[in-house]
C-alpha cells in the first residue's frame, strides 16, 4: 500500500477528510519552498501537492500562472523541484508529496529518468495535467512500478469511458475539477459536486478530492461533506503574494488551520 493510500485509509477510519494544499515550487523564492511545505504540514495538511512551474500552464488561472512565472524567473526547474523534495524529506518522511505539473518538463528529462529520480527523492504521486489516462498507460505503469501513484483529473464533462480509463490506470486518489474552467474560479455548484462525487467514487474505487474554486472555510466544509479530500491552491498562492516574507509561513499556517478546523467539524463517519 502506498503512503497516499495509507493516509486516506487512516483518515477514513476516523471519518476525517484529507486536506491537500497546493503551492508552486520556487514561489516566491526557491529557498522558501521547504519552509512553506513545513508550514503547510503545521497548518494541517495531510498531503502536499507541489507544482512544477511551466511556461504554459493551460489548466491554471492567473494566480497560479503568476506563481509559475515567478518560479521560472527564479531559476526553478524540474531537477530543482526534485532537489527541494529531497531537502524536505530530511525533516519530514511521513507527509505524502504529489508533484503536479505538465508533460513537457518530464518529456524533456525523459520518462524513465524522471520516474527514477522521483522515486529517489521520495515523491509519492504524480499528477500530470496533460497526460490523459488513455494515452499514458506506459507512464502510469512505470510510476506504479516505482511506488508512485499516478493521479488523474476528472471533470463535470468527463465521460463514462474516461471514468473506466482512470479506474484502470490511476491510483491514490482522483482529483475532481469542480468547475468548467481554470484554477481560481470563484463560483462552485455545490449541488452538482454533491451529485457527482458518489458516482465517481463508486465507479473508480478511489478516494475523491475536489479542487478549483475552494477559497475559505465555508466552501471547504461544504465540499468536505461529500468528498474525501479538499484541494486548495489559488487561495494559498494569494496569501503568499500578499504576505511580507517575515510573515509568510505564519499567515499560511493561520489560513490553513481555519480550513482544517472546518473539515474536522464535519459530522458523520466513514462513507
Write up this protein.
With 271 residues, the chain is α/β, with parallel strands linked by helices. The protein has one domain (3-264): TIM Barrel (Alpha-Beta Barrel), CATH 3.20.20.70. Helix content is 48%, strand content 14%. The chain has helices at 3-13, 33-43, 62-73, 78-89, 103-109, 111-120, 137-145, 160-169, 190-204, 217-224, 234-242, 248-264; strands at 18-24, 48-51, 97-101, 125-128, 149-150, 152-154, 174-177, 208-211, 229-232. The protein has a 9-stranded parallel beta sheet with strand order 5-4-3-2-1-9-8-7-6. It starts with a helix and ends in a 7-residue tail after the last helix.
In short:
The chain has 271 residues and is an alpha/beta fold.
**Major sheet description:** 9 strands, parallel
Distance between the termini: 20 Å
Global mean pLDDT: 93
Which spans have pLDDT < 50 for at least 5 consecutive residues?
A: 181-185
Query: Which shape, going by the Cα principal axes?
Result: globular
Secondary structure tally: strands: 9
- Rg, alpha carbons: 17 Å
How many helix segments?
12
Order of helices and strands: HEHEHHEHHEHEEHEHEHEHH
- The H-level CATH homologous superfamily, spelled out, is Aldolase class I
How much of the sequence is in beta strands?
5-15%
Helix content: 40-55%
Q: Under the CATH scheme, which architecture would be assigned? A: Alpha-Beta Barrel
* Domains (count): 1
Amino acid at each position: 500500500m502506498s503512503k497516499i493510500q495509507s493516509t486516506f485509509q487512516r483518515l477514513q477510519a476516523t471519518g476525517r477528510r484529507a486536506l491537500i494544499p497546493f503551492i508552486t515550487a520556487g514561489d516566491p523564492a526557491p529557498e522558501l519552498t521547504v519552509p512553506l511545505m513545513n508550514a503547510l504540514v503545521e497548518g494541517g495538511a495531510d498531503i502536499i501537492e507541489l507544482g512544477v512551474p511551466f511556461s504554459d500552464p493551460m489548466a491554471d488561472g492567473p494566480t497560479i500562472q503568476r506563481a509559475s512565472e515567478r518560479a521560472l524567473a527564479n531559476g526553478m526547474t524540474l531537477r530543482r523541484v526534485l532537489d527541494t523534495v529531497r531537502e524536505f524529506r530530511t525533516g519530514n518522511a511521513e507527509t505524502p508529496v504529489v508533484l503536479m505539473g505538465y508533460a513537457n518538463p518530464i518529456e524533456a528529462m525523459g520518462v524513465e529518468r524522471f520516474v527514477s529520480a522521483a522515486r529517489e527523492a521520495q515523491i509519492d504521486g504524480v499528477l500530470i495535467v496533460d497526460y490523459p489516462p488513455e494515452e499514458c498507460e506506459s507512464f502510469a505503469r512505470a510510476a506504479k512500478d516505482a511506488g508512485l501513484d499516478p493521479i488523474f483529473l476528472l471533470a463535470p464533462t468527463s465521460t463514462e469511458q474516461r471514468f473506466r480509463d482512470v479506474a484502470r490506470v490511476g491510483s491514490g486518489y482522483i482529483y475532481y475539477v469542480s468547475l468548467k474552467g481554470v484554477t481560481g474560479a470563484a463560483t462552485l455548484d455545490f449541488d452538482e459536486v454533491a451529485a457527482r462525487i458518489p458516482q465517481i467514487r463508486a465507479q473508480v474505487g478511489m478516494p475523491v478530492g475536489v479542487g478549483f474554486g475552494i477559497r475559505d472555510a465555508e466552501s471547504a466544509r461544504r465540499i468536505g461533506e461529500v468528498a474525501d479530500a479538499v484541494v486548495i491552491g489559488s487561495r494559498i498562492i494569494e496569501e503568499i503574494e500578499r504576505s511580507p516574507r517575515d510573515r509568510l509561513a505564519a499567515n499560511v499556517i493561520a489560513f490553513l488551520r481555519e480550513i482544517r478546523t472546518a473539515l474536522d467539524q464535519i459530522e458523520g463517519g466513514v462513507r
